[in-house]
Amino acid sequence: CFVCCVVSVLLVCPVQERGALGFERHYHVTDPFIRRLGLEAELQGHSGCVNCLEWNEKGDLLASGSDDQHTIVWDPLHHKKLLSMHTGHTANIFSVKFLPHSGDRILITGAADSKVHVHDLTVKETVHMFGDHTNRVKRIATAPMWPNTFWSAAEDGLIRQYDLRENSKRSEVLIDLTEYCGQLVEAKCLTVNPQDNNYLAVGASGPFVRLYDIRMIHNHRKSMKQSPSAGVHTFCDRQKPLPDGAAQYYVAGHLPVKLPDYNNRLRVLVATYVTFSPDGTELLVNMGGEQVYLFDLTYKQRPYTFLLPKKCHTSGEVQNGKTSTNGVSNGIHLHSNGFHLSEGRAHVSPQVELPPYLERIKQQANEAFACQLWTQAIQLYSKAVQKAPNNAMLYGNRAAAYMKRKWDGDHYDALRDCLKAISLNPCHLKAHFRLARCLFELKYVAEALECLDDFKGKFPEQAHSSACDALDRDINAALFSKSDNAEDKKGGGPIRLRATGRKDSISEDEMVLRERSYDYKFRYCGHCNTTTDIKEANFFGSNAQYIVSGSDDGSFFIWEKETTNLVRVLQGDESIVNCLQPHPSYCFLATSGIDPVVRLWNPRPESETLNGRVVVDMEGASQANQRRMNADPLEVMLLNMGYRITGLTSGGAGGSDDEDSSEGQVQCRPS
After folding, report:
1. pLDDT at 52 (0 to 100)
2. Which Pfam families does this one have (predicted)?
3. Distance of CA 378 to the CA centre of its chain
4. Which of the 8 DSSP states describes residue 165?
5. I need a labelling partner for 129 at 20 to 30 A (CA). Which of 110, 191, 263, 544 fits?
6. In sequence order, which residues have a C-beta less than 8 Å from that of residue 543 and are 6 or more positions away?
C-alpha cells in the first residue's frame, strides 16, 4: 500500500531523522495526492454503525467504536483486526480515545448509556466505569500535558473532568452549561488545544462555540475554597461559576439573526464537531444545520453588522475598485455592537493592476458569472483573492456572485466582501450598493435604508436608477410589514441572542459572552449536516492545508483551506459519512458512517485510471445538499428511507432567501 511504501522510503533514506521528519510533514499531503485519493481497503468487523475513530500518536493503531457496543483496535497499515472487545456499554458508543502516555494500553469510551468506561487493552478488561452523567455522552477529549486526565461532554449540558490517579471513581464538573443556558442545553463535542493544553473548546446546541481556559477555572475555584468568606454571601453577592476572562465565544455572524427562522422551520443549529489546527491557532467547527466554519484565534474579528461607511467625494476618482486619486478616509472599525467610523483621514493607495495570470483568472470568473455559473465564479475569484488580497475589485465581484447564488450564508459573505472592498477603496460604487442589498437580505431593514440613503448621497447620479428604486420599494414594504416589525433587529444584540422559554432562559453572564463573540475567517460549503449530530470536520495535512467533512449524502468533501474551494468529493458510505480522522503523519484517511465498516483512503497509483468512488459532478452534489438542508424535515426523512421527493431531486438551489429584485445598472455584472 501507499503508506507502507512511504514508511519504507523514509526508513532507508540516508537523511538525518530530523530532516526526514521535516520532509515528511511538509509533503505528506499535497494537491496531487488529494486528486489521486481513493479507497484502499474496507475493514470488516463491526455489526452496527461505526460512530467514532481514533488514531494513536504513532499512527500504527486505529480504534473504532460502534452501535454494537464493541471497540476494535486495528492495524490499518496491514488491514488487520488486532483486538475486539465488548466495552460493557449498553447503548451506542459515540467516542473512543487512547489515553496519552499509557503506551496505547488504556482506551476510553463514552456512550449513549450516559457512561464513560476506561479499558485496559492488554487484558481486555474494563477497569473503571463512571456513571456521573445523566444523558448521552457524545465526546471524550485527552491532552498530552495531562497524562492521567480526560474530559467528557454529554447531553446533560455538563463538561466533566476525570483524574485516574484519584482513588475515587467519580468525576468533577468543570463546566456546567445549564447555569448559563438553561436546562435544555446539550453539550455535543469538545477538544483540547494541541499546543496549549490549557484551552478547551466546547460545541453545544445553538450556534455559539465556546473556548475555555482550564487553568483559570481551576485557579478560580481553588481561590474560592481558600477564601475565608467563601461560604458567606449577601443577597446581591453572586458567585460566578467561571471567572472573567476564562471563556471566549465564537459564532458565524449571521446565525444569531437567522436562528428564529431556522427554529420556525425545525432546522436545528448545533455544533457537531470542533477541532484545533495542528499549530493551535485556528478552530474548525462543523455546524449542524449549516456549514463548516474556521475561526482564527490569533487575529480575531467581531461580526460584520450595522455598517454605514464614511462618505467620500466621487469627483476625480475612478469607481468600482479601480484607481482613486483623492485621499479619503476608509476608517471602518468593526465591533460586535455596530460599525464605528474613525474621524481621521487616510490616504487611499492607488489600486495595483493585476498581473497577467491573475487578470486571466478574473476574466474567467467574469465569464463564469455571465454564464450564471455562480459557484465556479466564486471559486475563481477566491483563487485570485488569495494571490491579490488587496484588490477591491475582486472582492466586489465575488460579492456579486455570492448574492446571485443565494446559498445559506452567501449574503453574509457578500456583505463581508463589500466591506473589504470599501475599506480598500471607499468609492467603490457597486460595493456600496450591494452592501445595502445585503443588509436588507439579512433582515437589517432599518440599516439597509440608512445605507441606501448614504449611497444616494455619495452617488447622486445613481439615486433614481431602477436598482435603487427597486431596493427602496423592498425596504419600505418591509418596514411597514407587521411581521417584519415584530422581528425588528434594530434593538441590537440582546434581542437576537436571548432565548424566550423558561427552561432555556439565558443568564446575564451568557448574554455578555455572546455579545462579545468573534466571527469566522473562512466558510466551507457543499456538504449537508442535518441528520446526525456526530458529523466531523477535520484539518488534513500537518500544515492544515485542507479541510475534510462528512455529509448526509454519503460523500465526504475536501476543500482547500485558504481559498475555501472544493477540490474533491468521494463516496464514503451508502448513507451518511460521520467520521473522518486523518493519519497523524501520512496522506491516509479513515472514515466511517452508517455502514458497519471502516474505510481507508490514500493516493492511488497513477496506473489506476478508474476510481468509482469519485463524485465527478461536485457542483451538482453541492446544490443537492443545499436543497436538502432547506427541505422540510419530513421530506428529508422520507428521502433517507429511499423515497424520491421532487423538490429535493430537481430544480435550483435557492435556499431560504427571496430572489433579488431588479438590479439595474449598479449591480448587474462584475467589474
Report:
1. 98
2. WD40
3. 19
4. T
5. 191
6. 25, 26, 278
**Residues contacting residue 57 through CB under 8 Å, at least 6 positions apart:** 98, 100, 104, 584
Report the C-alpha gap between 535 and 272 in whole angstroms. Answer: 6
Residue 154, C-alpha cell as written in the block: 454529554
The model's pTM:
0.86
Per-residue pLDDT reduced to its tens digit, 218-239: 999 888 887 765 554 444 445 6
What is the length of the chain?
Answer: 671
SS3 of 408, please? coil
CA dihedral 492, 493, 496, 497 (to 10 degrees): -160
Contacts of range 326-331, beta carbons closer than 8 Å, 24 or more positions apart? 328/426, 328/427, 329/426, 330/422, 330/423, 330/424, 330/425, 330/426
Tell which CATH architecture fits domain 356-480: Alpha Horseshoe (1.25)
Under DSSP, is residue 276 helix (H, G, I), strand (E, B) or coil? strand
Q: Pairing relation of β-strands 172-176 and 158-163?
A: antiparallel
The partner residues of 85 in beta bridges, in order of sequence, read 71
pLDDT, tens digit, for every residue of 404-449? 999 999 999 999 999 999 999 999 999 999 999 999 999 899 899 9
Stretch 624-632: mean pLDDT: 91
Euclidean distance between CA atoms 339 and 324, whole angstroms: 24
Given this structure, which CATH class describes domain 32-222+242-303+519-603? mainly beta
Residue bearing cell 411597514 = 480
Residue type, 207: P
Select from 434, 363, 362, 415 the least CA-distant residue to 391. Answer: 362
157 pLDDT band, cuts 50/70/90, is: very high
CB-based contact 97:141 (threshold 8 Å): yes
Q: Which residues contact 410 (CB under 8 A, 6 or more apart)?
A: 402, 403, 655, 657
Domain extent listing, the chain: 32-222+242-303+519-603, 356-480
